[in-house]
Recover the amino acids of this structure.
């Protein structure tokens, strides 16, 4: 049974532990991300970010980090080894955004074929727009730039429904 | 007159991007919107974000005076600002940066900044403080950097906008030139003017003309002096080109003796500024000061364009009341005469004397049997008032020696006029000339 609970200051050390563990996952977009500590996570909370922790039998197994001013929902990161945990956290992000009155949510992800990119693709409802590129020389054609960073955007209701469908069909 | 230029380029002409450090230090964000500034929780860590913007001020001519320059960056949805945060606009010192090559590490896709994040100078920077993510950035003190761009950077203003780079939640997003909403793209408004030139003219005093001296003009401007021989009133004659000079300097004016008007037109590109009209006299050095005073008074009164008095009826006579009194010039008339033959020094300094030169200014009109005279009473009083005001307590244009003048009522003409059945009203203008003692 997966439960999603809000992160408090007392949970920050656990979140930092999950964070640093995930950066060792070579298939994840977290691979080689900078290591953080408890104080850094506390700083995120103090800075207005929301952190949700996924727990199984009271043990943290993943977390989601999001934020944004009123009317917008920005998914910063979701860390989870398990697909179902990932989608549960994605659903929690949708609920949070809709509760704030946001219509759509967005995030930035790399172009690499990571586990997280695959999970988003499976949903089939997310739009990708390239926003970051390999720099080019002055005499090169901008039309031939190679994307390195994507902005993903989706209507939150649509995303929530897609997440629900995935979770319903999960084994 | 100031001129305003508004630059708000679109995606095709606009040059802007932003750079991020950390794991995105090698990523270029050219041709995207919005631009980020400050900090951003992107990827899995807090990154610094800086915006780069370029404007082409080439339409503003070299030498123009920049009155003000204001950059406005319109906030975009998704901005987050915590508390009161300061943003600064610096001049990028690496002009070779490119929109599609700039990253945190490099400025053109291959070469590294000297300092990662963009090379800039704090000289002439502007700052603005905002307290929420729904505020725009308005840098309204960029005149110095705009002037520097025009004078030294081929008209290109390169700016690096840096926000708060501490904390995790100060990510201001602003529309770029790629925004789908044209009015929200980065906008630079510059007000400028062409310096108005100052003109002075120095009479050679030897029948060789005069020298026009232009000052206050832009160094690169073309300055043309226009001259008009005094024809009774300003604009009454034809203007001709007296000469021209680039920037400030002297223009010789080959003119015969006489009274003139002149002005200078300063052209900078397609923009012009015009000096005030300058009145001057060219002499041969042989005329007495008193004669020059008479001529200057005549020119000044003609310039007043007194209502109902034709300019040709402002005449100089040896005596105010000759045989036919007004020399047949017609009535009404203003007769100007030297008033005193003797000119004792009234005051002076150790080596200079203040000498008086009096000029009688007499208004003559038809006699008091003329039925229209009563109706003309106020007109005569007004002429007298205008004449007195034109000379009272000031120097005399065209006679540089005169340092002051006084206006006094004149006496003694009334009887002469009465005998000739004329009305007269007269004042004496007393000019004070400061002259070197003991020389010609």
């Amino acid at each position: 049974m997966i439960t999603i609970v809000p992160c408090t200051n007392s949970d920050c050390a656990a979140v930092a532990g999950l964070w640093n563990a995930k950066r060792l996952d070579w298939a994840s977009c977290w691979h080689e991300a900078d290591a953080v500590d408890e104080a850094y996570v506390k700083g995120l909370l103090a800075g207005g970010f929301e952190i949700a922790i996924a727990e199984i039998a009271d043990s943290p197994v993943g977390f989601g980090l999001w934020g944004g001013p009123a009317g917008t929902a920005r998914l910063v990161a979701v860390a989870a080894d398990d697909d179902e945990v990932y989608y549960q956290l994605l659903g929690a992000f949708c609920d949070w955004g809709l509760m704030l009155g946001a219509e759509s949510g967005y995030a930035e992800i790399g172009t690499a074929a990571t586990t997280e990119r695959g999970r988003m693709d499976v949903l089939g409802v997310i739009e990708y727009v390239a926003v970051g590129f390999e720099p080019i020389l002055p005499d090169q054609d901008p039309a031939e730039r190679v994307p390195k960073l994507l902005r993903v955007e989706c209507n939150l209701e649509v995303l929530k429904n897609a997440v629900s469908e995935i979770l319903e069909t999960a084994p | 007159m100031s001129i305003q230029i508004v630059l708000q380029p679109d995606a095709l002409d606009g040059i802007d991007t932003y750079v991020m450090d950390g794991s995105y230090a090698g990523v270029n964000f050219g041709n995207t919107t919005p631009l980020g500034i400050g900090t951003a929780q992107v990827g899995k860590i807090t990154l610094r974000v800086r915006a780069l913007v370029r404007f082409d001020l080439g339409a503003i001519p070299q030498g123009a005076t920049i009155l003000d320059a204001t950059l406005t960056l319109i906030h975009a949805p998704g901005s987050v600002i915590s508390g009161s945060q300061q943003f600064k606009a610096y001049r990028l010192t690496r002009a070779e940066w490119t929109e599609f090559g700039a990253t945190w590490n490099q400025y053109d896709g291959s070469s590294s900044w000297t300092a990662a994040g963009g090379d800039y100078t704090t000289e002439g920077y502007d700052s603005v403080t905002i307290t929420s993510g729904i505020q725009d950035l308005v840098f309204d003190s960029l005149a110095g950097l705009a002037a520097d761009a025009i004078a030294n950077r081929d008209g290109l203003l390169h700016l690096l906008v840096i926000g708060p780079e501490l904390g995790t939640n100060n990510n201001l997003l602003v529309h770029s030139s790629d925004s789908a909403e044209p009015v929200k793209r980065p906008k630079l408004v510059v007000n400028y003017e062409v310096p108005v030139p100052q003109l002075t003219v120095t009479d050679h005093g030897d029948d060789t003309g005069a020298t026009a001296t232009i000052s206050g003009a832009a160094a690169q401007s073309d300055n043309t002096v226009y001259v008009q021989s005094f024809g009774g009133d300003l604009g009454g004659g034809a203007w001709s080109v007296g000469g021209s000079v680039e920037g400030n300097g002297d223009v010789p004016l080959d003119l015969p003796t006489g009274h003139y008007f002149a002005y200078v037109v300063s052209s900078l590109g397609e923009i012009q500024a015009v000096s005030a009209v300058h009145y001057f006299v060219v002499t041969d050095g042989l005329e007495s000061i008193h004669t020059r005073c008479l001529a200057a008074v005549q020119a000044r009164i003609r310039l007043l364009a007194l209502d109902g008095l034709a300019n040709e009826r402002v005449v100089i006579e040896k005596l105010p009341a000759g045989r036919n009194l007004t020399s047949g010039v017609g009535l009404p008339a203003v007769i100007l005469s030297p008033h005193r033959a003797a000119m004792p020094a009234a005051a002076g300094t150790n080596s200079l004397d203040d000498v008086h030169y009096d000029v009688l200014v007499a208004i003559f009109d038809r006699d008091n049997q003329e039925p229209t005279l009563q109706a003309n009473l106020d007109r005569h009083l007004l002429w007298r008032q205008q004449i007195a005001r034109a000379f009272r307590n000031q120097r005399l244009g065209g006679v540089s020696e005169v340092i002051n003048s006084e206006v006094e009522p004149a006496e003694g003409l009334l009887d002469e006029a009465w005998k000739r059945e004329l009305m007269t009203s007269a004042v004496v203008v007393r000019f004070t000339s400061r002259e070197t003692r003991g020389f010609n």
The beta strands of chain A are 2-6, 50-56, 59-67, 73-80, 104-110, 127-133, 147-155. DSSP finds five helices and seven strands in chain A. Helices of chain A lie at 12-22, 38-46, 83-100, 115-123, 156-169.
